[in-house]
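Aim 2 progress update. The chain analyzed this quarter is reproduced below.
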Amino acid sequence: MIHAGFCKLGDVAQEGAEALGKPVGSYRTVDLSPYFAHRSGQFLPAVKALSEELGELKAQQEAAAGAVRSAGQAYQEAGEGAEDFGTWALEAFSAAQQALVSAGIAGALREIKDAYAECVSLAGDFEAGMSNVEALSGSTAQEMAQLSAKAKQLGADTQYTAVQSAEAMGYMAMAGWKAQDMLSGMTGVVDLARASGEDLAQVSDIVTDNLTAFGLKASDTARFADVLAAAATSANTDVGIMGETFKQSASVAGALGYSIEDVAVGVGLMANAGVKGSIAGTALKNSFNGLLEGVTLTSAAFGEYQYSAVQADGTMKGFGSTIEELRGYFEQMTEAERVANAQAIAGKEGYNGLLAILNAADKDYQSLTDSINDCAGAAGRMAAIKMDNLNGQLTLMDSAWDALRTTIGEEFNPELRRLAETGMYTNVEGYLWYVNADIIEKV
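Predicted structure tokens:
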């Protein structure tokens, strides 16, 4: 664990300080000045500061068992201050270098190396993710700095890491979002992922694809996220399943001018009847096509009625309004008539989904409609509730710790990149192994 590595650093640095006056004739020092700045005059103050800060972190960890929420908040604050921590941790390591050499403590360096290697690996993954965002979005250096800061902030404040936030931004960039779109839309996407408990990158892909399909903009992200969160809460479905449904139907719904709210009600009612995923998507698409063409409804109760969802000006009636009208006609039909008329609209591969919508009880239909149409802030509220427990706070603590490790690792990246570019070391492990094994050589 990295925490143990840092504690070991304090121990071996103190031992090294005591060994500074010892003769070291049996050892030969390898000059590491090209890799770590030597500031021996700062050694004792830096190590003392490191020990004090690590003591505070350890106390926060021990307090977690009795006051988990307080500990979680403390680690979130630690994540917010990760940049400062990473800077002085590196300075302490650099200042302790000569003392460690003099003392000949090679074994302790292995633990420190492993701790820092993990930091460097996390930082490398984050940098690669943000480079992908930059390549896809064409963002400027200033915009990339803002996006990186946003990803790190989400990594410290939510259960998703900075690396996962970078992956989500990658899907936004693929959908054509610019930097400001990502900055304004990330919170809504993260809230939806937190509320649903699903993969952040997958949720980002679903949101960005279907905002475009419904003719919405990045500024509508929060609204879209709230609708999906409300549907997932009020019906027997989830965000991933709805994403599969939208693959088949969202582009047609958007072309007809149907709102995400009305379509989500239909998706939820179908899901409650067991019609989900791509099957529900096909049912919706076929229903849309049938409504566009118009249909002759037949029943012993009213004879024949030519129903059209197209208004006089050529625009479509709202999907919600169309469903309410059809429900009125279908209430007058026998069971056999309902099936026959549903097939006339949606075909044999879509009528099952349409029947699920039209046959739903009035109470269920109205309850789901009200929940979705009055869902502002639903994703954020659901996310907060789901994390308000022991496991939730421990997850937030782990994510904040990852943010801290990423920041520490970033302190090493410039030097490691320089070494890789010159061909001296081909990977991070090789470089850190050299620091560990060859810092002292026996003569």
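The chain has 21 helices and four strands. The chain has a mean pLDDT of 78. These observations will guide the mutagenesis experiments scheduled for the next reporting period.
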